[in-house]
Design a protein that fits this description.
By secondary structure, this protein is of the alpha/beta class. Helices cover 41% and strands 20% of the residues. Helix 1 runs parallel beside helix 2. The longest helix has 25 residues. Bound molecules: zinc ion.
Length: 314
């Protein structure tokens, strides 16, 4: 199959996409806000993004070989249904994202959780076949796991939904119905509430800049965030022991100062615990190069690796 493919990463805040040839040549890109609306708004956002990508690449959307989509929430890749994408107003009732987008264009659509897509993309960008965890800290917090070369989705598609581990019983309420979820205290959205910035500015980058300048409140917020993220890294490593943990999502905009802060927060308990010291958690933590977009790279890979149904059933 030699048709071009499209890959989209639908975030709680921004939707990004690429249309590329099968050989990987990028023909068009898009970056557009993910509007907040009712539960079906996200389908309209995706359809419009694919239309605009096709227009920019000067092809008809139905000429695409496949469309890969990463979305937050619990995703069944077999049906393309999404549930519990709390940042997209999708709750218990499944939203048939794959079927709706497929109907719009008449091409195969592969849907997976956004952190899963980003984990695939990160493994491709790093060129690693080792076990890898992609810790996505954006509007929400979740982990994508590539173990033994394949995605680990879990029984209910909830593997890696660590953002809803309740870490602070007195913390703020989370849209999932619990209180003090990791996501409610340490996501990009939580940081944006604690460190408000102007439109278009990254709260994490702004806070780290202020902390470097000696702002005491910024230093406290930085250390608080770093300790929550260090806890997340500990949970991941003590559960599945991956060789690489990629710190990603919108928060990665803060770059090396963020990596340094989380590494410092991992070193502190390792000084008291020979067990943690030997596990070398800080050494496994990496950032992707600035500007890398693993969610989109992974979504394109999902579309590229898609086998037409006729081949799959043959
Ligand atoms: Zn929650």
């Amino acid at each position: 199959v030699t048709e071009p493919v499209a890959g989209l990463d639908v975030g709680g805040t921004t939707t990004r996409g690429v249309l590329s040839d099968r050989d990987g040549t990028t023909r068009a890109t898009i970056r557009t806000p993910t509007p907040i609306g009712d539960r079906t708004t996200v389908v309209g956002t995706i359809v419009e993004a694919v239309r605009r990508l096709a227009q920019r690449a000067a092809i008809a959307p139905d000429a695409l070989g496949a469309i890969g989509i990463g979305v937050p929430g619990i995703v069944d890749p077999a049906t393309g249904e999404v549930r519990h994408a709390v940042n997209l107003a999708v709750g218990r009732e499944p939203l048939a994202v794959g079927a709706a987008v497929g109907r719009a264009f008449g091409v195969p659509v592969i849907v997976d959780n956004d952190a899963n897509a980003a984990a695939l993309g990160a493994a491709e960008l790093l060129g690693t076949r080792d076990d890898l965890a992609y810790l996505s800290v954006g509007t929400g917090v979740a982990v994508g796991l590539v173990l033994d070369g394949t995605l680990r989705r879990g029984w209910r598609g909830a593997a890696g939904e660590i953002g809803h581990i309740a870490v602070d019983p007195l913390g703020p309420p989370c849209p999932c119905g619990q209180r003090g979820c990791l996501e409610a205290v340490a996501s990009g959205a939580a940081l944006a509430r604690r460190w408000p910035v102007d439109d278009g500015e990254s709260p994490a980058a702004a806070m780290f800049t202020a902390a470097r300048g000696g702002d005491e409140r910024a230093i406290r917020e930085r250390d608080r965030l770093a300790s929550h993220l260090a806890r997340a890294v500990g949970i991941i490593c003590l559960t599945v022991d991956p060789a690489v943990v990629v710190l990603g999502g919108g928060i990665a905009d803060a770059g090396p100062p963020l990596l340094d802060a989380v590494r410092r927060a991992l070193h502190a308990p390792a000084r008291r615990s020979p067990l943690l010291a030997d596990l070398a958690l800080a050494d496994r933590l990496v950032l992707l190069p600035a500007g890398a977009d693993p969610g989109v790279v992974g979504a394109v890979a999902m579309a590229r690796n898609h086998e037409p149904a006729s081949l799959r059933t043959a």
